[in-house]
Write a structure and sequence with these properties.
Elements lengths: L2 E5 L2 H6 L9 E5 L13 E7 L6 H15 L3 E7 L18 H10 L6 E4 L15 H9 L5 E9 L5 E10 L6 E10 L2 E2 L2 E2 L10 E2 L3 E2 L2 E5 L6 E5 L6 E9 L9 E9 L5 E8 L2
């Protein structure tokens, strides 16, 4: 079975081509893409960003284009952290920083924003990557058979705004390390001002109605998660439950849950999954 992937000027973005591709092109591929319950490797692209970062909208557009290419196998997370995420004068008064995002920023110490991580795995000697390295780093990982499979179940109460989360992790191989589970809440559709230095993709220098998506809102179990398993054998299934009352300012219909199985020492990601709250 074949699937059709829409590639929106992706090669020009990655390699700095001068010609502008105005229309999407269709590329036929052999795979049908993951279907619900299919055990494939999924990859997390975490982008460090900030609302007064003039180059960040262009990087975010690239991340969105990569999402079109890799589909459900690529999960995006936008982390507002560092000096360029600090609230400043009007209209940049919003504060999208989180303790978890700041902790990750301080640990990985990116040279600036925008930069990103692909499964927190080194690529050509670096874990924190400039945007031109995102696509090849994803390509290096995405077709490797998965070591684990994650399923997320959610129950949301509109009246109380309580969200119950059930995460089931199945290990698909015998593994010899210790693993944690991180559970994040993210939100999309947040309209707020953003600095922008690329007039071809939006208003510049101030993009007043910019839409922030895949924004890290909160971790349910700390920056690096909590214990999941030690040297799990193939077939081991671990289940963990979490609950949170969504903040009043978050739009539940735009929120999602991201669950990450990761090495407890290196923080490299074994598997990732996401679902919508509603």
């Amino acid at each position: 079975m074949k699937k059709t992937i829409y590639i929106l000027a992706i090669m020009g973005l990655l390699f700095g081509a001068c010609d502008k591709i105005e229309e999407p092109y269709l590329v036929e591929t052999d795979g049908s893409g993951p279907v619900p319950g299919e055990k494939v490797r999924k990859v997390l692209l975490e982008e460090f960003t900030g609302h007064i970062c003039v180059n960040c909208p262009e990087a975010t557009k690239l991340a969105n284009d990569l999402k079109l290419v890799f589909g459900e196998q690529l999960v995006l997370l936008s982390i507002h952290a560092g000096d360029l995420a600090i609230p400043s004068g009007t209209p940049y008064t919003a504060d999208y920083r989180t303790p978890t995002g700041t902790g990750m920023f301080n640990y990985y110490q990116p040279m600036g924003v925008p930069m990103g991580m692909v499964n927190r795995s080194p690529y050509q000697g670096s874990t924190v990557l400039f945007k031109d390295s995102w696509e090849p780093a994803i390509q290096d990982l995405i077709d490797i058979p998965p070591d684990a499979f994650i399923e997320i179940e959610t129950v949301y109460n509109d009246g109380t705004r309580k969200l119950d989360i059930h995460v089931h992790t199945e290990f698909l191989k015998d593994l010899d390390r210790t693993y944690n589970l991180s559970v994040f809440i993210m939100e999309s559709g947040i309209v707020s001002a953003q600095k922008n230095d690329e007039a071809s993709i939006g208003p510049s220098p101030d993009w007043f109605d910019y839409e922030h998506n895949h924004m890290l809102r909160k971790s349910l179990n700390g920056t690096w998660g909590d214990f999941l398993a030690d040297q799990p054998a193939s077939g081991t299934i671990m289940s963990k439950d979490y609950s949170i009352t969504l903040d009043a300012e978050w739009e539940a219909g735009q929120c999602g849950v991201i669950a990450i199985a990761l090495d407890s020492e290196t923080y490299e990601i074994l598997q990732v999954e996401e679902v919508h709250v509603q």
